[in-house]
Structure formats: C-alpha cells, structure tokens
UniProtKB/TrEMBL annotation, chain A:
One GO term (biological process): D-methionine transmembrane transport
Residue ranges annotated for the ABC transmembrane type-1 domain, each copy included: 21-213
Gene Ontology cellular component list: plasma membrane
Family assignment from sequence similarity: Belongs to the binding-protein-dependent transport system permease family. CysTW subfamily.
Record-given protein name: D-methionine transport system permease protein
PROSITE patterns referenced in this protein's UniProt entry, alphabetically: ABC_TM1
Alphabetized CDD domains for the sequence: TM_PBP2
Residues annotated as transmembrane: 20-48, 60-85, 91-114, 155-177, 197-216
Membrane topology: Multi-pass membrane protein
SUPFAM superfamilies in the record: MetI-like
TrEMBL record, chain B:
Keywords tagged on the record: Amino-acid transport, ATP-binding, Cell membrane, Membrane, Nucleotide-binding, Translocase, Transport
Gene Ontology molecular functions: ATP binding; ATP hydrolysis activity
Cellular component, GO annotation: plasma membrane
Protein family (similarity comment): Belongs to the ABC transporter superfamily.
SUPFAM superfamilies per record: P-loop containing nucleoside triphosphate hydrolases
GO annotation terms (biological process): amino acid transport
ABC transporter domain sequence ranges: 2-241
Natural source organism: Enteractinococcus coprophilus
Ranges that cross the membrane: none
Subunit and interaction comment: Homodimer. Forms a membrane-associated complex with FtsX.
Domain of life of the organism encoding this protein: Bacteria
Pfam families referenced in this protein's UniProt entry, alphabetically: ABC_tran
Function: Part of the ABC transporter FtsEX involved in cellular division. Has ATPase activity.
Listed name of the protein: D-methionine transport system ATP-binding protein
Length: 226, 334
C-alpha cells in the first residue's frame, strides 16, 4: 500500500510522464506518417522495377535494394541515429527534441517498411495484373486500383509492425535528446534509481504496443475479404 | 476480325532460345468462335499473351478489327485492348472488391459515373445468371460462379472480341457445360468474335465453329470444325470423332472412313460390297453430331478371296462422300 501511495504522489510521474508520453506520440506519429509515405513509395518502386515486374529497371532496383539492405541490416539504429546528427542539424536546424528525432527514425524505418510493402505487393496474384492490363489500365491505375487495394491487409500489418519498431527506436532516440518515454526511463530509472518511474514506463510501453497491435489486427480483419 | 501474321515469340534464355510460337498465321471471321487446341507446352499461353500484347511478339502482327496492335503506341494499345474482353482460367477477380465492383472495373477506366457502372454491372450479372450476388465478395463464390463474374467483367466495356484462356480447365464437368453454354449464348447475342484456348477437345466440340491445332508453337491443322472433322487423315478428326475401344482388327485391308451429313445414312458395308467383290466388317463405329452436322467414323475390316482393288474401294467411298485412311493393306493388288 505504501508503495502504491508513493506511486500516486510521485511528482515525476505526475508532470514528466504525460509530457514524455506526448513526446513519444509526436515522434512515432510524425516518423510513422513519413515512413509510410516514403517507405511506401520506395516499396512500390521496388515492386514495379524488380526483374519481371511491371516496369523492370535493373539498375534502379539494384541501387534501392542495396541501400535498404545496408540501412536495415548492417547499421544498428544506435549508430545510425548518432551518425545522422549533423544531417538533422542541417535539415531542421536542431538535433535536439522529438521533431529532430523523427529524421533518424524515418531514415531507419522507411527502408524496413519499404521491404514489407514490397513483400505484400508480391503476394498479389499476377493474373489480376494481367486482367487489369487487358482491360486497358495504365500502370498508375494498376498501382492504385489493383496492387494497393489487393495488398491492403498485408500493408496494414506492415504499418502495425513498423509502428511497433518505431516505438522501440524512439526510446533509443530519447537518450540522445529526443525526449519521450526513453528519456524518462533513463533519467529517473537509470540516473536516479527511481524504480517506480521505470515500472510505470514499462507498463505504458506494453499497453501502447498491445493497443496498436489490437487496432491493427481489427483493421486487417475488416478489410480482408480473401 | 482477327488476323495473325507470321507471329513468332522467342524466349531468350542464357543457354538456349525457346521458340514458343513459330510463325503463326491465322484468320478469324466476324462472329466466329475459334478454338485453339494443343497439349501442355504447345505454346497456348504464349499465344494468348501475344494476342493481347501482354507479351511483345518477337516478330509478326496481331490485327484486331483494322488495327495492328503490334504497331501502335502504349496509349493506343490501352484503348485497343478495351475492344477485347478476356476470360481467364482462374477468373482473376480482385478479392478486395465486391462482385459488382469487379464487373464494373473496365468502366472505371473510362470514367463512367458510379450509378451508371452499378446499373451496367447488375445488367451483366443478370445476363450471366448471378442476380442477387452483386454485393458478395469473390471468395464467397464457387469456381463456376467466379468464372461467370469473369465473363460479365469481360463484357462490361462492350468488346467485339472475347478471348478465353482455358476458361473451363479449373471446373468440374457439369460446370464446364454450363460455362460453355453461357459463352455460346453471349457470343451469339452480342455478336462477338471468340477465341478459346484449351487443351480439352470437349470445349472445341461443344463451343467452336472452327479450330486450330497447335503443336510445338506451330499451327499444324486449321479449319472449320465440320471440314477438319470430315477429313479422316487429320489429327483433329481422330480426337473429335474418337472410335470406341475395340478388338485388334485383322483383315486383308483395314481402313478408317469418315463421312458427314447425308453420308451418315449410307449403309457402309453393303455400299462397298455392292460395287467391289469383298466382304466388309464394321469393327468400330462412332456416330456423332458436332455443331449441327452429323458425322460417322467407321473402322472397317475388308476381306476377299482375291487381291483387293483398293483404288476401286476408294472411288466408291469418295462418291458417297467419305474420306479414307488406310491402316493396313496386306491383301491388296500391287
Ligand atoms: N517466360 C518464359 N521463358 C522461357 N520459356 C518460356 C516462357 N514461357 C513459356 N516458355 C516456353 O514456351 C513453350 C510454350 O509454353 P506455353 O505457352 O506456356 O505452353 P502451353 O500454355 O501450351 O502449355 C514451353 O516450352 C515453355 O517452356
Ligand atoms: Mg498454358
């Protein structure tokens, strides 16, 4: 009981927690939208230009592919975010704060999302594309009327997964000035040994991730007619 | 309506070139239903893909109406394709759309109004016998129903030409009959020129006016169904009018004959024996109607106590409208 009372009276939680949650939401929200747009476009380009695709372009595909492999596999996010500090500084004039953190977050997750998009698009049966072409559809119409709607359940799952990854990365970004829940846990939990803040942070994270997964699954079930 | 000129498709591979379609020439008249039959690997899929320019032919022309599809720009090709409706083996419907939305898809491309698209979809669904299912999703339908949706979709933009790629190969026999009847009736009603690609002779028999036999990328036989079937020496005739299983025939002369129309009523044995000093056994027979024409295909064992005059027998048969193929001739005059 004592511990619980203390918890309710913990000043840090009262003021810092809502602020930290908000910062995390901002980081994940902005980086999420940017990731879906940028990664989505790259994913579609990858699918169209791959050998045997609708508009095969060997060189472009190879270049995009290798950039993606390198960002997602070779460079750990902890290193990428530090390496991107000068770039962030140049791009938005600051390298501190949740907005600045979205730059490295987007660069880290967009390629990951692009791969997921490419994989989802590849599951669209080639026969439906043949049918669309014979109808007289342009390539643009095939993307918007066939590929994206047919792959929608997979794309929603991809967004869900990417958001969860983003939450994880955002906690790391918090350590080098991004703020948010990662910063909160580090400041109070690690530097001040405030285990209450630590535990509450973990609980908030777990609930947040569960909620996103649950919403994602609901949407997939609603749009999946296969 | 459709002319194919010197159509050739070569797939270039690292080790060797595969000539999938080899110098094909083909003419299909307005309102005709033409079957292209061949076994697996003959080049059927390649041919359809070249007819719609889904694959670029290596050489040759595909002329639909008066337009050479191989010579036009991408934009013109897209417009020309709208005059062609295509039915696929697996229907290839979009799972994310309802039946009505699938059918109306070709109309979306030409920016038809939503209400107009819906009205046209309902009309077509009634034509193919699927009224009431407009708001279901393809996953909820049977294979035959899905194929009906595919046919309705192919007709949505009022095409002149209907291309069917193995339209019944994924269906059971009863559903196959229904789908063939449906294709026949819409083709008649809308005066469509139809090309049907298939490996099943049944489809040719029940649906087509004319037929081409595709073998190793070449058309080896082609013609009106009633003409190719009547020629006992054609491969198509043998599979269009198959003989029932029978005992091996031993006789001085073994021949197969095919006659059509009035010839079917000719008493074959007595007719030959009346003009030639021989006895005739009918070893196997098949009397069948293809389209509106009756055909008779006989396997005959002919014996005589003297050397047989084959030329005389052939003359008799020709006079009565039979084509002849000699299977074995031991006791024949030199
Ligand atoms: N994309 C391709 N690349 C290389 N060879 C191919 C390709 N498509 C078909 N072929 C070859 O062309 C020939 C005809 O194939 P296909 O048109 O699929 O025949 P069918 O549909 O009659 O079974 C086959 O020998 C096949 O291996
Ligand atoms: Mg095939």
């Amino acid at each position: 009981m004592n511990w619980f009372e203390e918890l309710l009276n913990n000043r840090a939680l009262e003021t810092a927690l809502p602020e930290a949650i908000w910062e995390t939401v901002v980081m994940v929200g902005i980086a999420g939208v940017a990731t879906v747009v940028i990664g989505g476009v790259i994913g579609v380009i990858l699918h169209l230009t791959r050998p045997g695709g609708l508009v095969p372009m060997r060189t472009l595909y190879a270049i995009l592919s290798s950039i993606i492999v390198n960002i997602t596999r070779s460079i750990p996010y902890a290193i990428l975010m530090v390496a991107l500090i000068p770039f962030t500084q140049w791009l938005i004039g600051s390298s501190i704060g949740p907005i600045a953190a979205t730059v490295s977050l987007t660069i880290a997750t967009a390629p990951f999302f692009a791969r997921l998009v490419e994989t989802s698009l590849r599951e669209v049966p080639s026969g439906t594309v043949d049918a669309a072409q014979v109808m007289g559809m342009s390539n643009g119409q095939i993307v918007t009327k066939v590929f994206l709607p047919e792959a929608l359940p997979g794309l929603i799952s991809a967004i869900t997964n990417t958001t969860v990854v983003l939450i994880g990365y955002s906690a790391m970004a918090g350590l080098i000035g991004g703020g948010g829940l990662g910063r909160l846990a580090y400041n109070y939990g690690y530097q001040r040994f405030d285990s209450q803040v630590m535990i509450v942070t973990i609980i908030v994270m777990v609930i947040g991730v569960q909620l996103i997964q649950w919403i994602g699954d609901k949407i997939v079930a609603a749009v999946d007619h296969r | 309506m459709i002319s194919v000129r010197e159509l050739t498709k070569v797939y270039r591979q690292p080790t060797r070139d595969v000539v999938a379609i080899d110098d094909i020439n083909l003419d299909i008249d307005d309102g005709e239903i033409h079957g292209i039959i061949g076994r697996s690997g003959a080049g059927k899929s390649t041919l359809v893909r070249c007819l719609t320019l889904l694959d670029r032919p290596t050489k040759g022309q595909v002329i639909v109406g008066s337009q050479d599809l191989t010579a036009v720009s991408d934009t013109k090709l897209r417009n020309a394709r709208r005059r062609i409706g295509m039915v696929f083996q697996h229907a290839n419907l979009l799972s994310s759309r309802t039946v009505a939305e699938n059918v109306a898809m070709p109309l979306e491309i030409v920016n038809a109004k939503k209400a107009e698209r819906r009205a046209r979809a309902l009309e077509l669904l009634e034509l193919v016998g699927l009224q009431g299912l407009e708001d279901t999703y393809p996953a909820q339908l049977s294979g035959g129903q899905r194929q009906r949706v595919g046919i309705a979709r192919a007709l949505a933009a009022d095409p002149d030409v209907l291309l069917c790629d193995e339209p019944t190969s994924a269906l059971d026999p009863n559903t196959t009959d229904d789908i063939l009847t449906l294709i026949r009736s819409v083709a008649d009603r809308l005066h469509l020129t139809v090309v049907v690609i298939t490996h099943e002779m049944l489809v040719v028999k029940n649906l087509c006016d004319s037929v081409s036999l595709l073998e190793a990328g070449k058309i080896v036989e082609s013609g009106k169904l009633s003409e190719v079937a009547a020629d006992v020496n054609s491969q198509l005739s043998r599979s269009l009018l198959p003989l029932p299983t029978h005992q091996p025939v031993t006789a001085d002369l073994v021949i197969e004959v095919v006659g059509k129309a009035d010839a079917v009523n000719t008493p074959i044995g007595s007719t030959i024996a009346a003009e030639n000093p021989v006895t005739v056994d009918i070893a196997a027979a098949n009397i069948e109607t293809l389209g509106t024409t009756r055909f008779a295909h006989y396997l005959l064992g002919i014996n005589s106590d003297q050397p047989i005059n084959l030329t005389g027998i052939e003359a008799t048969l020709a006079r009565h409208g039979f084509s002849v193929r000699v299977r074995a001739a031991r006791g024949v005059q030199a």
